[in-house]
Amino acid sequence: MSTMNISLPEPMKAWVEDQAKSGRYANSSDYVRDLIRRDRQRIEARVSLQEAVDAGLGSGPAEALDRAAFKTAMRTGRDG
């Protein structure tokens, strides 16, 4: 595993150390790694959501929903 040194203001350093002492994390590095993992997941989720929005916008104008046809298609899909 690689090592990276970072500089933090004292209040942030104290926060990180407190999180490690809370028992949820083995040490400060575990806490920072968890923050990075969560940040990556958040960004990936946002990118995925934006891709879905873009696909929806690119699919053309909305069409009225035929509820009866939709229900029939759902029943047929489940039963067949």
Task: Provide structural commentary.
- This protein is mainly α.
- The protein has one domain (10-79).
- 70% of the residues lie in helices and 0% in strands.
- The chain contains 3 helices and no strands.
- The radius of gyration is 24 Å and the shape is elongated.
Shape designation: elongated
SSE pattern? HHH
Structural class: mainly alpha
Which regions are unreliable across 5 or more consecutive residues at pLDDT < 50? none
Largest sheet data: none
Q: Give me the number of helical elements.
A: 3
Q: Return Rg in Å.
A: 24 Å
Helix content: over 70%
* Strands, total number: 0
Number of domain units:
1
Mean pLDDT: 93
Distance between the amino and carboxyl termini: 51 Å
- Hey, roughly how much beta strand do the residues contain? under 5%
